[in-house]
Amino acid sequence: MYEETFSSFLKGVPNNIKAVSDQTNVNIIMGNEAGDADSIISSLSLSYVNFLKQNDSKTDNISVSMPLVSINRNDLSLRRDASLLLDMAGVDKESLLFLNDEVFTKIARDDKVKKSVTLTDHNKLRSNLQFLDEYVVEILDHHQDEICHNHVSGESRKIAFDNKSALAGSTCTLVTEILMTNKNLKEVDAGLGLSLLGVILLDTMDMSKEAGKGTDRDQKAIDFLMKHTNWSALKLDEEVRGKIMDSDTNLPSRSSLYEYLRDSKFDPQFWMDMLPRDALRIDYKRFESKEGNAPFGLSSVLLEVKSLVSKEGFYEHVLSFMKEADVNLLGVLTMKIVDDKPQRELLLIGKKERARIMTEYLMTSEAASFLDLVKQEEKDIDDDVVSVYFKQGNPKGSRKQVAPVMLASSC
Ligand SMILES: [Mn+2]
Fold first, then answer.
1. What is the 336 CA–ligand 1 centroid distance (Å)?
2. Does the reported pTM lie above 0.85?
């Protein structure tokens, strides 16, 4: 009997970890540093899906799972979509483990603790966790392979990315695929089904053709979750139920669920009220060459450039953010939905020479041409720093496409 639900399983994790003996391996499962809904939910859900599998094969529990929310505890409230989804799934957010929790930092830093690391939604440890390299045993991702942790290979290295595009719009699709191979599974736990479905819909923009994110694999995962989840067990308050469930079928309405989550994430008031610093760090990733050279940062922001730069103290926040993040080049990728289509812009801020070389590369190189960037304006921020504003013609070019182009420029 597998009474453990997604939410009760997660609630039990801190106690499981407290109870580990010297012989037990702690499997840390974590998403990427941007810590978006996909990163958070793929880590939590993979942990539970593994638990279901382990229960089936009746192996001894020599490994305990430690799913991590890969951001600081106080930052979850900034991830509105993920936060809402966890609430709807009945997950107690307080009992989750976060990047800055001592439970994690102690285990990560203590060489005597037996441990392994599974990366979801990224395939290269963030720079300040590189010391965990030797412990990485598994990768489940849909970003371009950065060819790191090369001791992880074969079945353990699942990277759904090929030729400039992701083969799955969401890591949660890959988690669902693992669930689909579990032959003994009779139905999918309601909280798990809702969490996975919600993220896949967010990441593929409800399989929008214009956005070009969703693939056949995402479609299959969506169909599987819709059909096999025990939706009747979902405990929702009446207001939310009215918003996301179809009252005739008692199944989630895909478009309503998607819109509800999307609106929470894009809420213009939420973004307008936010400090510039928070807008930059809410969905931020740092990149560097294989040799650790030429680092740059990319922040995804759900506001137009015009509104973003009009925030009070924007450029002061940018300069101090870049200093803290230790990068002298920062790209801000903005997106706004207009008529169900993403509209994208890029604001490049950096040391004059570097920003200009990068601008030149983005405007003229073959590799960058598919992004269809058109330079609008260049402006000095101070004696050393310049900002360059572009409109981006290609609505499909998100960070997943822009980052490899900038990395390849080696400028
Ligand atoms: Mn993802």
1. 19
2. yes
